[in-house]
Amino acid sequence: MQTKRTIFSNRVLPYVLLAPQLAITLIFFIWPAFQAFRQSFLREDPFGMKTTFVWFSNYTRLFENADYLNALWVTLIFAVSVTALSMSLSLLFAVCVNRVLRSGRFYTTLLVWPYAVAPAAAGLLWWFMFNPSIGILPYGLRYFGYDWNYRLHEGDAMVLIVVASAWKQISYNFLFFVAGLQSVPQSVIEAAAIDGAGPFKRFWTVIFPLLSPTTFFLAVINITYALFDTFPIVDSTTSGGPSQSTNTLVYKVYADGFVGLNLGPSAAQSVVLMLIVVALTVVQFRWIENKVQY
Amino acid sequence: MFKKLSLAAAAVALSASTSFAATEVTWWHAMGGELGKKLEQIVQKFNDSQSDYHVTPVFKGTYPETLTSAIAAFRAGQQPAIVQVFEVGTGTMMAAKGAIYPVYKLMADEGEPWDPSKFIAPVVGYYSDPEGNILSFPFNSSTPILYYNKDVFKKAGLDPDVAPKTYAELADFSKKIVSSGAAKCGFTITYAATWIGLENFSAIHDLPYGTLQNGFGGPAAEFTFNGPTQVRLWDDLKKWQDTGYFQYGGPGGGPDSAPKFYSQECAIYMGSSGSRAGVIANAKNFQVGFSTLPYYDDVTKDPKNSIIGGATLWTLNGQKPEVYKGVAKFFTYLSQPEVQADWHQFSGYLPITNASYDLGKSQGYYEKNAGSDVGIKQITRGTPSDNSKGVRFGNFTQIRDVVDQQFETVLSGKQTAKQALDAAVKEGNAMLREFEAANSN
User: Fold this and answer.
1) Is 0.85 exceeded by the ipTM?
2) Domain A65-289: CATH superfamily, name plus number
3) Which residue from B263, B395, B404 is facing A260, i.e. has the nearest CB?
4) Given an 8 Å threshold on Cβ–Cβ distance, is A242 in contact with B71?
5) pTM, two decimal places
6) In contact, B341 and B104? CB cutoff 8 Å
7) By 3-state DSSP, what share of chain B in percent is helix, strand and coil, each rounded to 5?
8) B371: pLDDT strictly greater than 90
9) Number of structural domains found in chain B
10) Tens digit of each residue's pLDDT (9 = 90 or more) over A255-269
11) Which residues contact A271 (CB under 8 A, 6 or more apart)?
């Protein structure tokens, strides 16, 4: 049996080779995480002139705080919706493009464009389109008798940030799905066709299971994206409103810590967020990965 | 050859360092766009006027971003000499005693002229400690005023030279505007829940926003802005929203408010006097009128002064002595009536000193530019009471967010105005206690 193990004859070399990566991890990941952890036990004025050690008070207050529990709930709805919407749409697009022989490249180029847009710019773009006073979409919706106003209606605000965030992520998912689809062996599909399986049956019993590594990978990426990278979209469209209905965990960390200058509670929030991500990763790799066939 | 070159380089470096011996004074500010260009022009004139000091303005983004980066820089020991802080951050800065160099002390230490009585009263009151010493240098102060669309007023059969004085008139005018189809909405407000709709509203009606003279008396203050008149306004705004008289422009500064006014969707707009230049530039197809903020005439017959917004310049500790000399010289330069009047007339911010206001008068500026003195007249009317001196609370940025959120629950019908204001007071008080605890031991 072939192992992945490489044997170094030099004892120091492996450590030297590892050192840059370790240094980067230490400086940019472990050290800030440690700082956040330390800060979460402190109460401090913004300038850091007076610091008090307050044990777990920042944490206990967090879970007594209705706003924080609301943010947890909002984040759950948001992350699940963004992941489901962007993955299902991009799978649909990928399947469509995969069937088009000649113009596939053209569609691929078009579909990849949104990925080049910075999240803040994407947020502004959707802000313009959905703006109740100057936007084109509310204008159209009013024609159908729907009063779209994300400044007032909580549902509208959630739809706005979900659509804007999912739209940003579709390109990325799409590329991976196309690549995944193209690596499905043609012979397997033909065999299924000869056995009399229709296109839907072929997709769900042959192609989709073969895509499971891609799907799993994308699920991990998309959830992380929804949890962290959507901050600029929330910031530039709804700023967490109306009445906190789109205040996600990562936005709340920013609003409390960087705008409100309330460092201790904000640090406690980021530690909790970190734990959530660790837990999610463990769940994903422990249990879900078992169901993935490579 | 190499030796010669390096010698030449050293000579160049030497001569360069002598010609740039001017002491560097860094100023972090939040003035983007046209205002930023004007600010740089003002600094340039100072730099050209002498050779001992060189002020370098650095644009740091929005007000909260500027404050945050200054604080982060302070913690890292890399702070600028001067930082522009918005009025909401005043409580935070005042509590940071070890971090700031009060301007009155700076000017006294450096022997620069400094006379608080030269500044207009609301500014002195807002930025002074309980002993009456001004702690930060007033630079750009504004106050909310009412802008209206004269063309829409005409279309609605209203007199284009008469603005609504009271809330009763505001509702009445809005009704005529909406029912005649002259515009889709009567009025919109920036900072609808906070600066204009609650803080200035309370001041104008001489109602306390909090205990201990709205927080001026110390950090132990508690909020009291859930009184019957404030409840009444929020109830009315909800009612007027449902009838289409009022449109909400979003939380904080209400990013959708100004577009609603520019696109002529709303006929009346309450916003900062500092937006004057922007409003005129954007009101391309219609005439703009200016007036004071409305009030309930059955609550007060004699509305008080409005309160200020905008920002001041704070000096931070930890610089070399010669830098502070430069800061003091620069502040003296900024106090000059010509510099102040120029900035005020360009931007729409208030004239900070009486002399700069008088200069504008003698230049005939206010006659030539109708409505440009509405703000200053409104903020200086009557004698400021404990309720109209301003508001000063710690954690105020976060507290304003809470007020915004509660206001939104009223507009969406989830809570009554009374419930929302009670909740905002309760949550706000908890944040005040947190601030007090973090700054007391």
Assistant:
1) no
2) MetI-like (1.10.3720.10)
3) B395
4) no
5) 0.84
6) no
7) 50, 15, 35
8) no
9) 2
10) 888 887 888 889 999
11) A36, A37, A40
